[in-house]
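User: I'm writing a tutorial on reading structure tokens. Could you give me a worked example: one chain, its sequence, then its tokens, then a sentence or two explaining what the tokens reveal?
Assistant: Sure. Here is the example chain.
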Amino acid sequence: MMRYGVLSLLLMLFIGKVSAQEKDTIYPQAPDNEVILKEILDINSPFYYPVLMTRYRAGDTTLTLNDYRHLYYGYAWQPEYKPFENSSADFKLLSEFDHSLDSLTRQDCEQIIKFANEVMKTEPFHPSTVNFLAFAYGALGDTINERINYHRVKMLLATIRSSGTGVQEKSPWHILYYSDARDVLASMNVLYGKNTVVSRTTEYYPLYQRIGNVRGYFFNFERIYWNRPDKLPEKKSRGWEFNGIPLRKRK
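And here are its predicted structure tokens:
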């Protein structure tokens, strides 16, 4: 499996600020599920989902933060959204980074692009997957696709961080996959301990070293369980794991 150090390095290479055109938007605020669902289903809405997704897949860099909020959180209602299923291409993609970045060949980069694009068919909004594309295209000298995916990963991370302050349980960052939380933290270049479930919808990542008054970050994972309510973890459960990832620190 890929080391988190590599992911952190790659993400730090491509993270930037949200574009100036979004500076007047009032955030952070939790996604309004009713409003988002209504707008992505309305064929006359600028956020009609098939149109937004077509623009996203075409590499449209004029998509705004509000567009991305509808894309990312609107994906929770799409039939392709299956957070408990792992793509075989995803594992192949990670395996390409088992060795040093310095030793990657042109063929390695082409394989990364192949597997990443395969993952993107059903999991189009993983920051790490998009980041792999930006890195691999850049390594091959394809500056157009590098910039497209740089914009994507920047906006995806900004979207998640626009959904709350992250520093309070009542204002968490909303995610579609558990790995998205780790991608956000990797992009911030912070060291954190084991994530723990603090409620039926929220988990907490404690920092090894606090940043000012911030001791850790909260993430809302409720969308992951929308289609599997019977699997919601109980509040303050102990020893519960998902794919080997502890959701409550054992004492």
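What the tokens reveal: The longest strand covers residues 202-211. The chain has two domains: 4-161, 173-246.
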